[in-house]
Amino acid sequence: MHTQAIFELSQEAERLLQLALQNLNTLKTVSFTTQHDVNYFGQFQTGGAVPAKFSPRSILAQQAMLQNELRKITQHEMVLAIVGTVKAGKSTTINAIIGTEVLPNRNRPMTALPTLIRHTPGQREPVLHFPYVQPIEQLMNTLQIRLQQTDRETLSKHLEIDRDMAGLLTRISQGESFAKHYLGAQPIFHCLKSLNDLVRLSKALDVAFPFKAYAAIEHVPVIEVEFVHLAGMDEAYGQLTLLDTPGPNEAGQPHLQKMLQEQLSQASAVLAVLDYTQLKSVSDEDVRKAILGTASSVPLYALVNKFDQKDRNGDDAEQVKALISGTLMKGTIEPHHVFPVSSMWGYLANRARHELALHGKLPDPNEQRWVQDFADIALGRRWQSEDLADVGALRQAAELLWEDSQFAEPIQTVLHAAHANASMYALRSACQKLLNYTQGAEDYLNFRCQGLRIASQQLQHNIAALEDDMSLAASSQKAANVVSQSNMKLAVEAMSDFIRRYEQQINDNIQDYFQHGKVPEKLTRQALSFGTQRGHDFDARYETLSFDDEESAQIALHRIRASCEIILTAAQEKMTEELTHLFSYLEVELADTLRNTLKPIEARVAQGLAQAGFRTNISLPVFHVGLLNFNANQAFNELIEEQDIPVSQLRRQAGMRGTVARWLNSEDWGWEGYTVMQSRYVISLADVQHKLCQHVSDFLLQLNQNMATQIEMSVTEGMAAFFADFSHALEAIRLNLQQSLNVRQQNEDAVAALRQQLQQCVRITRYIHEDSRLLRDDIQTLFTVEQQ
């Protein structure tokens, strides 16, 4: 590590950050900034006001962001933010990254507050520091009063009171506060679970939780523990810290989306935890939107968890990387930064390896539940207690499970690199934040400079023209909505016709199969990507298949189901391809509608729109194969019928005649006929065909309804958000022009003084920008040298 070079670059970064903070202080004092945070932008769907780019509130936010970068530079700290939804397995992933369990896993949101987890060499037992506990204590005092006014029965109607919640209620009633330090995994679990339950309780009692008090990263709880994967490695010149962030809408708190954005803006890199089984869900889409906003500021990585649940119809690793990089993340993340993994397997395997290395055995499974989970996965569910005594076999099983988890690659690529280059990541993050700040500040200040050069009469004319444009935009929105609704209706009708056409084709293929007893090779090749000769599954001349034992019937039915799945998979491949094109076509049509609608307005205010950060685009969710999965297993349930069939048999007659016939061993006489009932296992081919076709019909009907609803919601919400952003951008321009007009109406001395201040701010901003650009190049050069 080039320690001297890093020290010199850090000194330069500190100087530029201090200069930027001083420049922001100057902007707070001059009269051309917004003096009040009026809601001139209107309301977002979340109900929050959007501040002007350099209003006092916005300047404070930018100062807080730069102060945080300054803190990370001075402490040589690299902060890797982990973001994900509740069911994506974020806590399990963090435990797998650390190598031991420091975060609790419950089937509900667990990150009420952002939590820092800092790699601390030698700290084998985790310790949580929570020095800024005062806001929580004030909340508990308020809740104590509110609980005295609310009976338990009424509360239980609005809140699930489990054992943890009951303990928290007792704790509040007794006035027991949170401690500032917790040592050990269980006390930490209890603290974090209690904080999460406080969020739920506050919501039920309509008491505001003090989220804003923990917006600053230095106020959040900190866990110090040695990361198992980094133990014994050479000490890096810098400090690695994970930031466990609240997911968007976590714990039923929609405003956490804004808090998430603020926390991500303070990170040096972002690691998204996505659920392989829910890549197109609404919750995962919220995560993608949150991290897309940070794409230009910090490196992005993605762990696609639960990859162990991939079936034969699911996307493989390369397809997942391409999907996330190219489609879901719109090119903002490199494919080699996407890692399909099983966090649970990785956590269990590594913890078992660690325990075996330290103690030569695993703990008692009755005392530590994770051992049972490990044994179930690594040894099979029929494992016995004596299996845990074979240390050699356990080591091999743990290594194989670790390999299957595919966690080694992200540990090496992300964690080890972040630890080795923590100070470099901090430098790169600070440099990028400086460049983002200066670019925005220069755009804004140039706009203000232009306003000071324009005469008052011209400014008034521009404001009046812009107000006309805003009225035109409002009326244009109505016209655009009419066109978009028409496009949407046509798209939904086309989709319905397409699905009906494919349903008929699927039914024809199913009928052909039951008429001939085999699947055509063309469909097999289409479904399985390779040709194979499949023989006849049954004799199609008979309406039923009959077997002496149930096992033979099950084998025959399984063979039929496998062939029917080939038919469905072949249809699924073609439908996915065509539906993807349909969704893409609709998105293009909507974008053209918007461009044509707003073209006259954009031509007049293009420069102002760019300064306000507006971009003409609308994004709809793409169709993904996960939406189309026939999964016909249920269609083959209860299709084997057990029947009692009369069967004729022969036996020796009773009496003298039968006795004589046995003595003489006669085959021709001395016999009599009788009937017995015998069980047979029968499969009706007509019933199988009917049930399968009904399953296809029901599934496609539901698919059609779901996609129509999805398109309608996406178009409606997308258009509303688009025009809201457009109106917000126009209003920002109008406000800036109005501020310029107010300045122009002052005396000439005041205008001259303001012009001089403004020009000085512009010069400083350009100076910071140029030096930050040079610093970025030096950092990248050093990064390249270190990686060689």
TrEMBL record:
SUPFAM superfamilies: P-loop containing nucleoside triphosphate hydrolases. One of its GO terms (molecular function) is ribosome binding. Residues 74-410 form the Dynamin-type G domain. InterPro entries: Dynamin_N (IPR045063), G_DYNAMIN_dom (IPR030381), P-loop_NTPase (IPR027417). PANTHER family: GTPASE DER. This is Putative vimentin. It comes from Buttiauxella noackiae ATCC 51607. The lineage of its organism: Bacteria, Pseudomonadati, Pseudomonadota, Gammaproteobacteria, Enterobacterales.
